[in-house]
Amino acid sequence: MAKATIATIDPREAEHFGRLAKDWWDPRGSSAMLHRLNPARLTYIRAAVDTHWGGDGASFAPLAGRSGVDVGCGAGLLTEPLARLGAAMTGVDAAPENIGAARAHAAATGLAIDYVAGGIEDWPGRRFDLVVSMEVIEHVADPADFVRGLADALADGGLMILSTPNRTPLSRLAMITIGEGTGAIPRGTHDWDRFLTPEELEALLADAGLRVIDRSGLSFSPARGFVTSSNEALNYLLTAVRA
Length: 243
Description:
Blueprint: H1 11-18, H2 32-53, E1 67-71, H3 79-84, E2 88-93, H4 96-109, E3 114-117, E4 128-134, H5 143-152, E5 154-165, H6 169-180, H7 198-207, E6 210-221, E7 225-229, E8 235-242
Parallel strand pairs: 1-2, 1-4, 2-3, 4-5
Antiparallel strand pairs: 5-8, 6-7, 6-8
């Protein structure tokens, strides 16, 4: 499989998210939407992990003895819970400011997480049992090259889980017109033209030698908040393995 050959980091995107670093762990701050997304993401990841590795659903550490990498980790909102599930976690982010905030928060909570500033293409030859990247591919310079980098980081028998907004009229309305327009999401966070449909992302994964084994929508319920569902119009998650 071809290695990533060019930098996947978009410097403008890294700068944008780096400016948000100080508020990342504030559930009412600029990253409030990510805090709301996290429970649904973790529910999906836990189910995928238990299915793939035969977990019983009751273990507090279903990832014990396994390595994981969170690509585009921000300040560690998802990385930390995965470490608590037992994984030896690495967090990678393009913004050094985010890595600084992530290291400080992990140290304060007693978690041993390896945080590194850079892109996934900076890790040739290193592989992980679990590769996750949430709401990141829509921000990279070259999605195909980014996916190849993720595939190169996936160990044999491993599991990859991604999420990203779908390119639909609903996502434009909800995430840009309303979300960014009202300040619920920092203005300039999204470029709707860079969103990928599920079919487009699955094609990139197939080209990188991966096979999608599950896909789920991520939608909003007024009563329950963000939940996994069959509705992919706003956002979706998928699980992939080596083909």
